[in-house]
Amino acid sequence: MFKFPKYTFIAFTAISCLTGLNAAHAQQHNMSKQYQKPDDQAVQQKLDQWQDLKFGLFMHWGTYSEWGVVESWSICPEDEGWTQRKGPHGATYDGYKKAYENLQTTFNPVKFDPDKWVKAAKFAGMKYMIFTTKHHDGFSMFDTKQTDYKITDSKTPFSKNPKANVTKEIFNSFRKENFMIGAYFSKPDWHSPEYWWPYFPPKDRNVNYDPEKYPEHWQKFKDFTYNQIEELMTGYGKVDILWLDGGWVRPKNTIDTAIDWQRGIKFNQDIDMPKIAGMARKNQPGLIVVDRTVSGQYENYTTPEQEVPATPLSNPWETCMTMGNSWSYVPGDHYKSTHDIVQLLVKVVSRGGNLLMNIGPGPDGDWADEAYDRLNGIGNWMKINGEGIYNSRSVAPYSAGDIYYTKNKDHNRIYAFVLTKQEKVDLPASLKIPLNDIKKVKKVTLLGSAQKVKWKDSADGIELSIPASFNQIGLKQAACFAIDY
Ligand code: GLC
After folding, report:
1. What does the pLDDT look like over 226-276, one tens digit per residue?
2. I need a labelling partner for 14 at 20 to 30 A (CA). Which of 112, 322, 350, 426 fits?
């Protein structure tokens, strides 16, 4: 067995101070170090638009929410902290997998109402959404014709509901409000007899036979995967992002043995990405494909997981992070505070990235109250400060102490976010803002206030005089100064 390294990338600061170490941390997929700009101009254009959006919603949802356990991983026969089987069925592997897959016959999220989610996400200032159409366990949250292990099969009680094809409903609801739409899809499928062939027992997360020894069997898996993705690319309206997880399904020659978890991949698991992406882009021109951790033409942005790069990256990237401790719904999960999430967003954006924040819907089809509460708090902050977030790019000096910078991509305007320790913004009477390469500052304003800010030049930037009234307007989490030059 092999393990994910906890912190392989020295260039990355694990923001454990913000998030605490948790289960979702330990499972993390580490990020590609290489990047290839896509040749396709339409993809380049969409990537540029996507980079303006900054803040997205991720949702991990499946039958696993009924038990409130980790998404999929409890049926993976590896002995890791996050794969442990719990509950009354845990004693034997086979008994557990059977009971797990039987969750299909009780899944009935009757409170499912994607319009309610969109409303909350939109208020928070989120602009795109990525949903788990199928996770590693293979349960399709869409009306696939390739398997009956799906939400719309008659065995699933929710199949009688008019909104049973939840992927379609979610995509339509978010698209109506102009969100970019992303389909998370797991390449590995632990239900498919062509991935975990019942002739052999599954041994770990990987395919359980050698595809080169049994090419016909593997071909069936390739066809199955292609067909499912084709369904998603043709029957669900406009899709902007295809987010492919499960980086161990990859051509053997792309395995990087310097990375712990990739050393465990014994077989060539080439699913023919050029063919899949070609089909997908024919149906969805300009589609952003994120074949995460497989550098090349099909990894159009990189995906640091549960962490923020210490320095800006030169390529498009997105930190995906859980709002609670887990990707999946866990009753009583501990949610990050509004304060932490806002400051996290500022840090990510100041380094040129996007933040994809995950909420795991529960088995009733709704989110925990905390999720709505946090989105509301973030929205209140965004109403005042969103101007410095959207359409921005990173700019030196990126950050200095508690000050984080962004730059509007079209105007000569820099934003300096001053993060505060407490909820309430409490600025000192005089504040130094270091600036790089700016000869002449024309104007400084505080977002959320009509009053002008006085400043004078200082050795390596400007020094602001802060009127006491600024601390009385009720700003929270972080104040943002707009600096025109
Ligand atoms: C981790 C988890 C996986 C989850 C993914 C989201 O890799 O192992 O279950 O879907 O993070 O980024």
Report:
1. 999 999 999 999 999 999 999 999 999 999 988 888 998 999 999 999 999
2. 426
Q: How much distance in Å is there from the Cα of 137 to the middle of ligand 1? A: 12
pLDDT, position 200 = 98
**From the alpha carbon of 135, which atom of ligand 1 is closest?**
10
Instruction: Note the pLDDT of residue 26.
Output: 62
- In this structure, which residue's CA is closest to atom 1 in ligand 1? 28
Mutate to test the pocket of ligand 1, among 58, 299, 305 (most ligand atoms within 8 A of CB): 305
Q: Give residue 439's identity as a one-letter amino acid code.
A: K
Coil, helix or strand at residue 420: strand
Q: Is residue 443 within 8 Å of residue 417, measured between CB atoms?
A: no
Tokens of residue 291, six digits = 């074949």
Ligand 1 center to 358 CA (angstroms): 11
Whether residue 331 sits in one domain with residue 234 = yes
Check whether residue 399 and residue 384 sit in a common domain: no
- The DSSP output letter for 32 is P
Please check whether residue 73 is in contact with residue 83, taking contact to mean a CB–CB distance below 8 angstroms: yes
Q: Which residues of the chain have pLDDT under 50?
A: 1-21
Q: Please tell me the predicted confidence (pLDDT) of residue 459.
A: 87
Nearest alpha-carbon partner for 209 in 222, 220, 197:
197
Q: Which of 4, 70, 245, 355 to mutate to test the pocket of ligand 1 (most atoms within 8 A of CB)?
A: 245
Residue corresponding to tokens 């053997």 = 252
Q: Give the pLDDT confidence score for residue 130 in this predicted structure.
A: 99
Residue 2 lies in a domain: no
How many structural domains compose the chain?
Answer: 2
Tokens linked to 283: 């149906």
- How far apart are the two ends of the chain, measured CA to CA in Å? 56
**pLDDT for position 31:** 76
| Whole-number average pLDDT of the chain | 93
Same domain, 461 and 480: yes
Cβ < 6 A, ligand 1 pocket:
27-29, 60, 71, 245, 305, 320, 327
Query: Residue 485 and residue 482: Cα distance in Å, rounded?
Result: 10
Q: Hey, what long-range contacts does 457-461 have (CB within 8 A, 24 or more apart)?
A: 458/432, 460/434, 460/435, 461/432, 461/433, 461/434, 461/435
Return the ligand 1 atom nearest residue 184 CA: 10
The one-letter amino acid code at 176 reads: K
Residue of minimum CA distance from atom 4 in ligand 1: 327
Question: Considering the chain, what percentage of its residues have pLDDT values greater than 90?
Answer: 89
List the CATH number of the domain containing 399.
2.60.40
Asked, for residue 3, whether it belongs to a domain, the answer is no
